Every structure is written in structure tokens, then in C-alpha cells.
């Protein structure tokens, strides 16, 4: 079970998210036969961040909403990414913090062996801080889960 060197799903999720010109990244993702979507969300509520990412993934065909294991895998990837954004405590509004995030979701098989199946990666980048303009700092998170 070896990861393909150029198929690191987390790396591609972060590159897609941070790229100023996404055309090259999207071409690479298409070449790998993976699915992707991007979006933005801002909130003081973690459940709204989760809902925005889940909605985008469903609308863009990244996951099938009627297949529980796919929603479940996405949920865990989102929570892992949020854990990075919030430094291990997935709390936002309850501790008077707000986030403004861009996100990327990728789905594909990063392994040489096709039997390993699909994996999903969620990357988040943006700001977190007190709900006062100018009282925030940059943050980033990445979550990866098997489907």
C-alpha cells in the first residue's frame, strides 16, 4: 500500500485552496480523475461551517447524500480540519471567536492499489479571532478520511 508520490490528496487540497490561479491545480485534479469543489464560509457557529462544506460537497457530486458512509467520512474530515483551525478545541462562538474561511474538498484514490478506494480531504484557510474587525489572525487546517 504505497501512496503515489504525485497523488497526495492533502497536498492537492491545500494547493487548490491557496492557489491564486486554480487552473493548473484543477487540471491536475482532473487528470487524476478526482472530484473537487471550493467555497467560502464565515460564522461564529461550527455547525454552520460543517453545513456549508457538506452542502457544497453534495451539490458538486463529491459525495452521495443518500450513502451514509460518504457523509460520515466527509464529516470526520471536516472536524479534523476544523480542529487544526481552532487549535484542537472545535469551539468558535461559545468562546467568542469567529472564522472567515475558504475551503476545498477533494475526493479520489491516492494509492497505487485501486482496491484502497476513495479518500476525502478537506482543507480550510482564513482567519479566526474575536468578532471585532481587525482582531483576527490567519489559520489553516487539513482533514483526510477514507470513504
Query: What structural class results from the helix and strand content?
Result: alpha+beta
- Strand elements, count: 4
Q: Mind describing the biggest β-sheet?
A: 4 strands, antiparallel
**Helix fraction?**
25-40%
- Overall pLDDT confidence: 92
In the sheet with the most strands, the strands line up as 1-2-3-4
Keywords: Activator, Histidine metabolism, RNA-binding, Transcription, Transcription regulation
Pfam families: HutP
Family: Belongs to the HutP family.
GO molecular function: mRNA binding
How does this model look, in words?
This protein has 147 residues and is of the alpha+beta class. It has one domain: Hut operon positive regulatory protein HutP. The chain is 35% helix and 29% strand. The chain is built from four helices and four strands, in the order H-H-E-H-H-E-E-E. The protein has a four-stranded antiparallel sheet, with helices on both faces. A hairpin with a 6-residue loop joins strand 3 (119-129) and strand 4. Helix 3 (46-59) crosses helix 4. The two termini are 16 Å apart. The mean pLDDT is 92. Antiterminator that binds to cis-acting regulatory sequences on the mRNA in the presence of histidine, thereby suppressing transcription termination and activating the hut operon for histidine utilization. GO terms for molecular function: mRNA binding. Homohexamer. It comes from Lysinibacillus composti.
Amino acid at each position: 500500500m504505497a501512496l503515489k508520490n504525485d497523488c497526495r490528496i492533502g497536498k492537492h487540497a491545500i494547493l487548490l485552496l491557496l492557489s491564486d490561479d486554480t487552473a493548473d491545480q484543477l487540471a491536475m485534479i482532473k487528470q487524476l480523475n478526482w472530484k473537487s469543489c471550493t467555497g467560502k464560509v464565515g460564522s461564529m457557529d461550527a455547525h454552520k461551517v460543517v453545513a456549508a462544506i457538506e452542502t457544497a460537497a453534495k451539490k458538486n457530486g463529491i459525495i452521495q447524500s443518500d450513502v451514509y458512509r460518504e457523509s460520515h467520512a466527509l464529516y470526520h474530515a471536516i472536524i479534523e480540519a476544523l480542529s487544526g483551525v481552532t487549535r484542537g478545541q472545535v469551539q468558535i462562538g461559545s468562546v467568542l471567536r469567529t472564522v472567515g474561511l475558504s475551503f476545498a474538498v477533494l475526493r479520489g484514490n491516492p494509492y497505487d492499489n485501486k482496491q484502497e478506494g476513495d479518500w476525502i480531504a478537506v482543507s480550510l484557510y482564513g482567519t479566526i479571532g474575536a468578532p471585532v474587525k481587525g482582531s483576527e489572525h490567519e489559520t489553516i487546517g487539513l482533514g483526510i478520511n477514507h470513504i
